[in-house]
Amino acid sequence: MEVNPNLTEKAMRDYQLVQLAIQNGDIESVLFLLSVHANPNSRIQDNQRRTPLHIAVQFGSEMIVRNLVRKLGVILQQFALN
Which of 32-36, 38-42, 72-76, 78-82 reaches the highest mean pLDDT? Predict the structure, then answer.
């Protein structure tokens, strides 16, 4: 996986953990990572420029997609209130 070298170590780790959990269809791990504030819309880009949501759609996990979209909605709602 080719990744932007200017990213923080935490952002890289969060993205890789979320990506791995999604690819393995591990909904419990995805939910845990989201609960500890892993960014579901992280703009960290692999060589195909995908976000965690793109990966979830590609792997066909409807439950993971639903939870990522729900988390993104909460983030957008908080942003709008500020």
Answer: 32-36
| 22 vs 56: CA distance, rounded Å | 6
* Cβ atoms of 53 and 16 closer than 8 Å: no
- pLDDT tens column, 9-40: 666 666 688 888 998 999 999 999 989 888 77
- What is the set of domains in the chain, with CATH numbers? 9-81 (1.25.40.20)
The whole-model pTM stands at 0.71
Other Cβ atoms within 10 Å of 34 Cβ, number: 21
CA-wise closest residue to 64 among 17, 24, 14: 24
